[in-house]
Amino acid sequence: MAFDLEIRAADWRAHLATTHAALPGLVPVVKGNGYGLGRQRLAREAGGLGLDLIAVGTYEEADELLGAFTGDVQVLTPWRPFSRRVADPRLVHTLGRLEDIPALAAQLPGARVLVEIETSMARHGFDRHRLTEAARTLAEAGLVVEGLAMHLPMTGGNLDEARMWCAVLETSALETTTVFCSHLTGPQLEQLRTERPQLTIRPRVGTGLWLGRLDAFSVRATVMDVHTVQRGERIGYRQGRVPRAGHVLVIAGGTSHGIGLEAPRAVTGVAGRGKAAAKGGLAAAGLALSPFTIDGKLRWFVEPPHMQASMVLLPEGATVPAVGDTVPAQVRYTIASFDTIREA
């Protein structure tokens, strides 16, 4: 089976270098499936850029990447007493609850920590009114505060909220002048640095760094089999009827590769709601568009994708690829998995 990604390495690495130069203090985020590219690969790329710090999602990821990256590793998920124990002087924990401060200090005395605040995301972190108490408790526990962490929404207008949290930091008694932030644009970061020159602002970036040059990526899926079918013929696991004559292509790439998997999307506006309703109507009728482009068009699934392959209908009159040919595929990289990743 072959569901493969090819990277134009020179173009991609040029983008990484440009992003690094444009964002002083950059902290690459290396988490999940490594944005489709693999965590180990991204950790090596961060090292190649000469960066001193990466951020990972979980303690399991930290345990893995401490061996692949020579710098420090932040864990984005706040520490809990049940978190996997990873004792390494290069590890930086995140704290967002008062009760976790003495518990972490008891387990890992003198641990390095970030203090996360509860932004308008309302996901993790200290309420602004608890920061002074947190500062006192951290000092008593003997933990080393390395910075304030703010995880902001993806709506774009985050500068005012970032300003507010920087002001809160300066009145909180936390012993740090470093702020780690997400989802601020380059101009917003520069504005914040201009207004708060006494603070060190460090952006944590994942998607914009690793997936900022999608034109440097090419995903190809191999045609594994081709069958002639007639209208009304029953095929597939579910023995559905073929709606029109043509060919069924069996193409490498199924649910284990992320094909056919979809997260809920935010829908806004009349047009967006109309598209969502139309898509829902098609799904109710058993119709779903595949991510495979064949003879210039995206083609319909015959049935939901299988674990490692998909069955796609190519109508009569379209150019039929041969077994062994490859076809382009559209993917959502944060859920994609590839059989091979090659650099060109």
Automatic annotation (TrEMBL):
<feature type="domain" description="Alanine racemase N-terminal">
    <location>
        <begin position="20"/>
        <end position="155"/>
    </location>
</feature>
<dbReference type="InterPro" id="IPR001608">
    <property type="entry name" value="Ala_racemase_N"/>
</dbReference>
<dbReference type="InterPro" id="IPR029066">
    <property type="entry name" value="PLP-binding_barrel"/>
</dbReference>
<keyword id="KW-0413">Isomerase</keyword>
<protein>
    <submittedName>
        <fullName>Alanine racemase</fullName>
    </submittedName>
</protein>
<keyword id="KW-0663">Pyridoxal phosphate</keyword>
<dbReference type="InterPro" id="IPR009006">
    <property type="entry name" value="Ala_racemase/Decarboxylase_C"/>
</dbReference>
<dbReference type="GO" id="GO:0008784">
    <property type="term" value="F:alanine racemase activity"/>
</dbReference>
<dbReference type="InterPro" id="IPR000821">
    <property type="entry name" value="Ala_racemase"/>
</dbReference>
<dbReference type="GO" id="GO:0005829">
    <property type="term" value="C:cytosol"/>
</dbReference>
<dbReference type="InterPro" id="IPR020622">
    <property type="entry name" value="Ala_racemase_pyridoxalP-BS"/>
</dbReference>
<dbReference type="Pfam" id="PF01168">
    <property type="entry name" value="Ala_racemase_N"/>
</dbReference>
<dbReference type="GO" id="GO:0030170">
    <property type="term" value="F:pyridoxal phosphate binding"/>
</dbReference>
